[in-house]
Amino acid sequence: MPLVIRNAEPDDLNDLTELMYEYIVGFYQKPKPAIEKIHNLIQILLEKQNGVQFVALQDRKLVGFATLYFTFSTMKADKYTVMNDLFVIEQYRDTGVESQLFLECQRYTQEHQFTHMSWITATDNKRAQRFFDKMGGIQGDWINYSII
After folding, report:
1. Largest pairwise CA distance in the chain
2. In what order do the strands lie in the sheet with 51-58?
3. Are 109 and 133 in contact (CB under 8 A)?
4. What is the domain partition of the chain in residue ranges?
5. Predicted confidence (pLDDT) per residue in 28-78, tens digit
6. For the domain with range 4-134, which CATH number is right: 3.30.360.10, 3.20.20.70, 3.40.630.30, 3.30.499.10?
7. Closest CA to 19 of 92, 84, 88, 69
8. What digits encode the pLDDT tens for the residues 124-144?
């Protein structure tokens, strides 16, 4: 079966939850959020008001996902997307799945008339940085901070 990239659907809930846990806990080694929180987030994204989630299926199996959140830029006085997540399970990396998810996010951004798509990645994630460079990404002039 060919690779399928599509919007997440309600029937994806369980498989997408597992994939998100693999991303959060397995890949980034962060604490496991409560399942209710993950399900709530997926539900919000299914509504497509604050963001949208895409999934990648290979042989009818969920192998990756990407998440776009919608926000605004005061400097551009317009809306833009933030690609908050782009995750593909290990065995499907470097097979074109990442590129297709990225391009779907970019297509959605353009078709829905957002000004641009932005994203961040960890400073030590050199593999992702090489991928984003290859996809035409340009490192910005801003330094990201966060606080708890």
Report:
1. 45
2. 4-7, 51-58, 61-73, 78-88, 117-118
3. no
4. 4-134
5. 999 999 999 999 999 999 999 999 999 999 999 999 999 999 999 999 999
6. 3.40.630.30
7. 88
8. 888 888 888 888 888 887 777
